[in-house]
Amino acid sequence: MMRECLENVRKSVPLVHNITNYVTVNDVANVILACGGSPIMSDEAEDVEDITSVCGGLNINIGTLHKTSIEGMFRAGKKANELGHPILLDPVGAGASSLRTNTALGIMKELKLTAIRGNISEIKTLAMGSGTTKGVDADVADAVTEETLDEAVKFVKGFAATEECIIAVTGAIDLVSDGEKCYVIRNGRPEMGKITGTGCQLSGMMTAYLTANPRNSLEAAAAAVCVMGLAGELGWSRMQEGDGNSTYRNRIIDAVYNMTGNELEKGEKYELR
After folding, report:
1. What pLDDT, in 10s, does the model give residues 226-260?
2. Does pTM top 0.85 for this prediction?
3. Domain 2-272 in CATH: superfamily?
């Protein structure tokens, strides 16, 4: 199924509207292109309804909020809901400031979301209405480990069921659930945390996967997580002496670009709970 999800993106070339942060906007666009989709970026409130109308999916990322982009998020989201387009929310830094937390909670309340993707601290903040986030990174106290895995799976399943959307928690161990089933994914490299924006890139790519696989949203979201993690592994294996995090970023995007269905099938590491 994950191979099929990958191939559907390549075949359909989904157009994804991204309201994302200006720290990672270029990398988000490039990884969407690499996976087989097509990106368009717009956060101006007067522009977003027209833009999202010609797209297939909407990726909302709250990493660098300002008043205009917040208005744009709600206007684009309502238009996407009218059109039946999938919407993904990436609640970057929720728990770090009241503006981020309240904006994310408002989006959840007013829009029908297909998926929410974030680190464990961000997702816990949304579930509880407040939380502690280390800047835009997960609080170490919240980390999903083998020791806390059963409890984390139960939490993610419960939150997905409550919100009636897919919840994707990414970290050392990734969890993707629709409230009934939960993919536990162990692809990736710890060095991916040294690159700004791997999570933002994943959210853009996941939106492309959701758009290209409307009947298999859970599997599409899980496939995107596996692809990104496997790309991190492949990219790291190709590092040479003198390479650093900038080169690693490019190698990850290249690995996404070159990934085949066969390569994904051989490299994906997941269990279903």
Report:
1. 999 999 999 999 999 999 999 999 999 999 999 99
2. yes
3. Ribokinase (3.40.1190.20)
